[in-house]
Amino acid sequence: MLEITNLVKRYGQNDPVLKGLNLKVEGSSVVSIVGASGAGKSTLLRCINRLVEPTSGSIKLNGHELVSLRGSELRHSRRRIGMVFQGFNLIDRLTVMENVLSGRLGYVSFFQALTRRFPQSDIDRAFSLMERVGIAHYADKRADQLSGGERQRVAVVRALMQEPQILLADEPTASLDPKTSQQIMSLLQSLASEMSLPVLINIHNVTQARMYTDRIVGMRHGQMIFDGEPKEFNQDALDAIYGGIESPEEDGGDSGQQASPAPEATA
């Protein structure tokens, strides 16, 4: 279970990007985070995996505090947090298999990593996962020869090779066409169920959030203003997150600020 309590992230002397956020993600649930650009969605994910340092608050993964970790303890903890990026973050000149096996770098020695000599058990698991997502026949193909959807599947398998306790996905479909986006979201939904793996997805596409996730968290100005099932995510919630309606949690603000338009199918 991921448990976030009173999470604050401030850059310099600017207003906080995250303002005392509280969130729990558990079981095999798929949770989507929606909100306009600048709402704090990506910052939230990057605080969880410590790509950015939280200013204050608590982030616990299965009871283990992540915020206070440093050095080797932090590296070991990151092995249990899988991450899928919008831009795939693959090494183009390496093969699919080599990219997938890079998900095991936190578990092997420096020499094994340098020479790419991974245990047979890792290779077997890589083939099994690649077969599951439909890319096993690309094992020896360079990553830069794949389509966007195929590259994202490689990225998903690489994250799963870490044997994560939670999977984070930062706009995993933003670079893909609509059909491929639906395939990737369906894949993440299926994998969460099969592996009893909680998945937290930062996504702009509200329609996909409704279709493929169990729970929607809506953010505005660094605060969570909606948390419920997709069937509860109605027009009022949409307006509060993307429109000109201020949420009860927000105090003050510039009343003359122009509101962002409410999104349609691909907000």
UniProtKB/TrEMBL annotation:
Any matching Pfam family: ABC_tran
Disordered as annotated region, ranges: 242-267
UniProt domain ABC transporter: residue ranges: 2-246
One MF term in the entry's GO annotations: ATP binding
Key word Disulfide bond present: no
Membrane topology type: Peripheral membrane protein
Keyword Cell membrane in record: yes
Compartments, record wording: Cell inner membrane
Chief location of this protein within or outside the cell: membrane
Entry keywords, A to Z: ATP-binding, Cell inner membrane, Cell membrane, Membrane, Nucleotide-binding, Translocase, Transport
InterPro entries: AAA+_ATPase (IPR003593), ABC_transporter-like_ATP-bd (IPR003439), ABC_transporter-like_CS (IPR017871), ABC_transpr_PhnC (IPR012693), MetN_ABC_transporter-like (IPR050086)
NCBIfam families to which the protein is assigned, alphabetical: ABC_phnC
PANTHER family on file: AMINO ACID IMPORT ATP-BINDING PROTEIN, PHOSPHONATES IMPORT ATP-BINDING PROTEIN PHNC
Protein name, as recorded: Phosphonate ABC transporter ATP-binding protein
Origin species: Marinobacter salexigens
